[in-house]
Amino acid sequence: MIKSRAAVAWAANRPLEIEEIDVAPPKKGEVLLRMVATGVCHTDAYTLSGKDPEGLFPVILGHEGGAIVEEVGEGVTSVKPGDHVIPLYTPECRECKFCRSGRTNLCQAIRATQGKGLMPDGTSRFSKKGQPILHYMGTSTFSEYTVLPEIAVAKISKEAPLEKVCLLGCGVTTGMGAVLNTAKVKPGSTVAVFGLGGIGLSVIIGAVMAKASRIIGIDINPAKFEVARQLGATECINPKDYDRPIQEVIVGLTDGGVDYSFECIGSVQVMRSALECCHKGWGESIIIGVAGAGEEIATRPFQLVTGRVWRGSAFGGVRGRTELPGYVDRYMRGEFELDTFITHKMGLEEVNKAFDLMHEGKSIRSVLLF
Ligand code: NAD
Ligand code: DAO
Ligand code: ZN
Ligand code: ZN
């Protein structure tokens, strides 16, 4: 057992508590990581709120990490101590039906145990005074030390600053990947981005990389507009400034609708607007936001009959071990920036402040440093 400083969520809707916990050594096929930095994402807050039907407690949250391999378990060959890695909440075993299909990044090799907050052998590596504490999204990056299956770490360049590229562990890859991988936005396209948080801003970065000609940012918080424009939004609009549905406004602004839209909020009402602001005949709308448990989307089917396409994207469709190192390399070559996203940096002990800043709409990403 090694001792680790961790932010523990003992129960839903309660502040996290900084604890010294015990972390068991990695078993066969597992790796022990020392966390260097982690972003705090909307999804951590969603689970902590108690609204996540899969949310289990006590748990160590966090899934946007940058880490160094400390120790490897029996049989691990793809990484060694000292390697720099990004933990993957969407693993890549390269052997399951999903991985072999070449058609999805949704590896299912450890899905059942990961969903229960456990390692693939059905147990947890975390405990406090003998009481087990659960893993979260297979990553639990709010701990100085964490254990992951080998198939859930992406080995990246040692040159890359972990306190920045940790954001590629979720938000930035999700948004950029949805544009470049899922939608495959073509040069000259018009794009609408609903929600200008970390995900929506990453969609804007992806749309700039894809050479979209027009990028319309939509948010009910106009404080988000300046940074959206800075990253490449050509115009920003607030639905509250109009007395008709926002999809009608966008159709009017774009000669019949956009080529692509992205929902980056998790609102089923906005998902409908995002679909219906797409151009008849070819417009595609990508759902990225995670809606509340049990919620359903609706539109008139004729919207689809007349050529609009509704799709979804998880982790930007990115296969973590194979493709994420390339995203890090693209960042290192200066193809996109991450500094604008990091509005706050603080120690792990200030994790609750990071959640407060997110709820107040004052941060894009807080990065916790260990
Ligand atoms: P965020 O809270 O930082 O940003 C959401 C933005 O939406 C905010 O700026 C808010 O003002 C705006 N907004 C809220 N209601 C609105 C409305 N009705 N109209 C217009 N704008 C509105 O969240 P985030 O971190 O950017 O995450 C966005 C969503 O993406 C969440 O649902 C999150 O769970 C999800 N997510 C999905 C994936 C995936 O792989 N699909 C990965 C990560 C996060
Ligand atoms: O294979 O069923 C599965 C799980 C897929 C998980 C995809 C996660 C995408 C959305 C969650 C938000 C991530 C922060
Ligand atoms: Zn797999
Ligand atoms: Zn996330």
Question: What does this protein look like?
Answer:
This protein is α/β, with parallel strands linked by helices and 370 residues long. Helix 5 (171-183) crosses helix 6. The strands form 3 sheets. Strands 3, 4, 5, 8, 9, 16 and 17 form a 7-stranded mixed β-sheet that branches. A 6-stranded parallel β-sheet has the order 12-11-10-13-14-15, with helices on both faces. The chain is built from 12 helices and 17 strands. It has helices spanning 42-49, 97-101, 111-115, 162-165, 171-183, 198-209, 225-231, 246-253, 268-276, 302-305, 320-332, 351-359, and strands spanning 2-8, 17-23, 30-39, 64-72, 84-87, 126-128, 131-133, 145-149, 153-156, 190-194, 214-218, 235-237, 260-263, 284-287, 309-312, 342-347, 365-369. 26% of the residues lie in helices and 24% in strands. The site of nicotinamide-adenine-dinucleotide (NAD) has 32 residues, from helix 1, helix 5 and helix 6.
